[in-house]
Every structure is written in structure tokens, then in C-alpha cells.
């Protein structure tokens, strides 16, 4: 009787092996790290992180705002307005635009319509024509008319001193609401714009990944005596001293408190 063969067997060429026959090689073990070296790396990483993100003490925050107040006791925003309604409109128009650019268009706009009722009567097309030199003017014109209609319909033509009511208006977000509440109604709110966001993160005064996080940190850190004007001091500081490009660290009144690692280079320039 002949030898039985497996019909599914694979014929191999001389020197060829199947995956089953191929020998398995053990992975080469990496040399174990000593506890000393592992610990050293961890300590260095933690030390570096701590050095960069070290928060200011309460005394340092107090001192910073004392200096800012001494330099500018009654800070004011640079947007031009007449009353709470025109302030609201100016702040809505200032989104992704400069205050100087907004101030060029609002005199003519407010001369034509300085109340919600007049703004609605003026109409979206005419508003658009009056503000076309600023960014996103089409969307802003639409929002100005829509929020004016809502003020007339739901608030008797008055600007409500309530955050939730303000944020319910078309084109009004948290930052705009905070500005209106602070400037028009004297609330201790802090509106975090790009300047404040940069200053607080660069100096480690109140670091955060989002404007809302920075706002929350500022609310915890800023002494109540300075809360009323805090956002104006920080905005002006970011706009004219702690600028995005080439900050004037040499003339900064709080440079000794600042945690920014690169400030030394800029102090030498100014």
C-alpha cells in the first residue's frame, strides 16, 4: 500500500520555510532604566513645568493692580458711545475690528440712529452702507437690526442689565455682555479679549486655555477693590505695553512680577 499524502500540503522549495516552521525570535530586551535616572527625568520635567507656569501670589496680584491703578486711576475703553444702547452697538461692531476703525463709522451711524427704534427704521441696507469699512459688516448690520428689534419687542427699547438677556441678543456673546455690564452698569465683570488673554497667559497672572478659563482665574485672583477697572487696565496694558509682537518689557510697570521666560531679551531692547 502506497504512502498517503496530504492534499493540502504546500510544496516547499529547497531552503524555504513556512510561517509555522519559521523560528520565533525573542524581542531584545531594552536595558532597564535605573530608578535614579528615571527619577531624574521626572524631576526635571516637573521642575521645568513648574517654573514656566508658576502662579502669582495674592500679594503679587495686589501689587500689580496697585501699580496699574497708580499709572491710570480711571481707565476708560477707547470705543466712542453715548449711552448703553450705543455702547452695545459699538461693542458688537468691534468684533474682529479695531476700536479706531469702529470709531470712524459710529458717529455717522449714531447721528442717523441712536435708539433701537430709529435703528430698525433705518434698515439693514443703510446700516450696511454706513459700516462697510469694518470687517464682517454684512453680518454685523444684520445683527444690529435683529438685536434692535428684540430690544424693542422684549425690553421696551432698553438695554437689559442682565447677562442672560444680553447674551440672548443676536451678535452678543459673553465678552460683549461683560463689557456692557461693566461699562454701562458698573458690574465687576471682566471681558477677556485677545489682549487680556495674551497678557494673562504670557505673564502667568491668570493662565487658561480658553477666554472663559482666563476669566474664571481672574475672578479668583483679582482683589475686589480692583475688579471694577481690571479689564480696562489689562486691555490697555496688552494693547500698548505687552504687545503681541515686540512687547515693551523694559518700560513695563510689572516686569519684575512677570513669569515670561523671554522677557529678558525684550527688556534689553527697550
Q: What's this model, at a glance?
A:
By secondary structure, this protein is mainly α. It contains 14 helices and no strands.
User: Into which percent range does the helicity of residues fall?
Assistant: 55-70%
Query: How large a portion of the residues is in β-strands, by DSSP E?
Result: under 5%
CATH homologous superfamily placement of one domain: Hypothetical protein, domain 2
Largest sheet: none
C-alpha-based Rg, rounded: 31 Å
Overall shape: it is: elongated
Category by helix and strand content:
mainly alpha
Low-confidence stretches: 1-52
**Architecture per CATH nomenclature, i.e. the level-2 architecture of one domain:** Orthogonal Bundle
How would you describe the oligomerization state of the chains in this entry?
single chain
Mean pLDDT across every amino acid position? 85
Roughly how many Å apart are the termini?
103 Å
Helical segment tally? 14
CATH class of one domain: Mainly Alpha
Query: How many individual β-strands?
Result: 0
Amino acid at each position: 500500500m502506497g504512502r498517503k499524502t496530504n492534499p493540502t500540503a504546500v510544496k516547499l522549495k529547497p531552503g524555504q520555510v513556512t510561517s509555522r516552521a519559521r523560528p520565533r525570535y525573542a524581542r531584545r530586551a531594552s536595558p532597564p532604566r535605573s530608578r535614579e535616572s528615571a527619577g531624574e527625568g521626572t524631576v526635571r520635567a516637573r521642575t521645568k513645568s513648574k517654573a514656566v507656569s508658576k502662579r502669582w501670589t495674592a500679594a503679587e496680584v495686589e501689587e500689580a493692580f496697585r501699580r496699574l491703578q497708580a499709572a491710570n486711576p480711571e481707565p476708560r475703553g477707547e470705543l466712542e458711545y453715548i449711552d448703553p444702547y450705543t455702547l452695545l452697538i459699538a461693542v458688537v461692531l468691534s468684533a474682529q475690528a479695531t476700536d479706531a476703525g469702529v470709531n470712524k463709522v459710529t458717529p455717522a451711524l449714531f447721528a442717523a440712529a441712536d435708539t433701537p427704534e430709529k435703528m430698525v427704521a433705518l434698515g439693514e441696507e443703510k446700516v450696511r452702507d454706513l459700516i462697510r469699512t469694518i470687517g464682517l459688516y454684512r453680518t454685523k448690520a444684520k445683527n444690529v437690526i435683529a438685536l434692535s428689534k428684540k430690544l424693542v419687542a422684549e425690553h421696551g427699547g432698553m438695554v437689559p442689565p442682565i447677562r442672560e438677556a444680553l447674551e440672548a441678543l443676536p451678535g452678543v456673546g459673553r465678552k460683549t455682555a461683560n463689557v456692557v455690564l461693566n461699562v454701562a452698569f458698573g458690574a465687576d465683570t471682566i471681558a477677556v479679549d485677545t489682549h487680556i488673554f495674551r497678557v494673562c497667559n504670557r505673564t502667568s497672572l491668570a493662565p487658561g486655555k480658553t477666554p472663559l478659563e482666563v476669566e474664571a482665574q481672574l475672578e479668583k485672583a483679582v482683589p475686589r477693590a480692583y475688579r471694577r477697572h481690571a479689564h480696562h487696565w489689562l486691555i490697555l496694558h496688552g494693547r500698548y505695553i505687552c504687545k503681541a509682537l515686540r512687547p515693551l518689557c523694559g518700560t513695563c510697570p510689572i516686569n519684575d512680577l512677570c513669569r515670561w521666560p523671554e522677557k529678558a531679551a525684550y527688556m534689553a531692547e527697550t
